[in-house]
Amino acid sequence: MSAEDAKAFGKVGVLFGGRSAEAEVSNMSGSGVLAALKAKGIDAHAFDPGQRSLAELAAEQFDRVFIALHGRYGEDGSLQGALELLGIPYTGSGVMASSVGMDKITTKILWLAEGLPTPAYAVLNAQSDLNKVAADLGLPLIVKPPHEGSTIGITKVTESSGLQAAYDAAAALDDSVLAEEFVTGREFTVAVLGSGANARALPIVEIVAPEGNYDYQNKYFTDDTQYFCPAPLDAAITAEMQRIAVAAYRAVGCEGWGRVDVLLRASDNRPFLLEVNTSPGMTGHSLVPMAARAAGVSYEDLCVEILRTARLKIGSKATVTSKG
């Protein structure tokens, strides 16, 4: 990238840290993005909205920001709304898509309305008949807080006697709880770049975790999980998985970039959509950079490509390149 091209981005804020349960991961993501943008000669600066106010964000006079926040207050539409009000172009999805993508229940409702495959589910509260839920969905099943990410608060329940403890663990993190049919099979993720008709899937990543347990520790802090990219799948399954991932991304209204998690059922090789991440990890263990590398795009170039898409989504269709 020439110095002139780098200068055209103006003053860039990299937003990371925040106040969610995923702040630790966000710090790793944001540090990587910040270093990558600086290596490209871009005038990039760190900003932690968990430690500093919106008034300070406005005072920085950023020409655009790269959102490297995960979870609540950064990935759920709240920050995106603030940036719209402040007039600061930002990366990733807009207010509505960010909010919907952060809510796994609403996401599933949308996908089912679009005829897209996703595991059967039930929404739990304190009055739910947990034995009936187990009978309806079958065991094992997955219990999770629908507004958290990075596998935080998720429990695999193999016996009805464990449902209450799983519910309590998820309810401690969220107002509602999602119980989901457990699909036995292989685990994949599909990174998507772009928006609307131009959205495209990157090479698929297969995730093989120790004993099938792709938890917070195995995601970010160990080298025990194996990743295969491009995933070893035949062409037809690859094409179908990428097709439904892009369809799922578009159904939620995502733009810029994102990642769709998919399970491939062992019994019939049918893919099922799990969730969409509108601000995926960008750490050394993260999967979007891995998929980009398989497509011949370096980490630094990926960060620049994402930053280039930064824009205001409300009231403007034009991609912002600078404040002029």
From TrEMBL:
Keywords in alphabetical order = ATP-binding, Cell shape, Cell wall biogenesis/degradation, Cytoplasm, Ligase, Magnesium, Manganese, Metal-binding, Nucleotide-binding, Peptidoglycan synthesis
Q: Where are the transmembrane segments?
A: none
Which PANTHER family does this entry report, sorted A to Z? D-ALANINE--D-ALANINE LIGASE (PTHR23132), D-ALANINE--D-ALANINE LIGASE B (PTHR23132:SF23)
Q: Where does the record say this protein resides? A: Cytoplasm
Q: Give the Enzyme Commission number.
A: 6.3.2.4
- Hey, which pathway is this one from? Cell wall biogenesis; peptidoglycan biosynthesis
Annotated binding of Mg(2+) 2, by residue: E275, N277
One GO molecular function term? Answer: metal ion binding
Q: What general EC class does the enzyme of this chain belong to?
A: ligase
Residue ranges of the ATP-grasp domain?
108-308
Q: Identify which cofactors the protein needs according to its UniProt entry.
A: Mn(2+); Mg(2+)
Family to which the UniProt record says this protein belongs: Belongs to the D-alanine--D-alanine ligase family.
> Per its record, how is this protein called by name?
D-alanine--D-alanine ligase
The positions annotated for binding Mg(2+) 1 are D261, E275
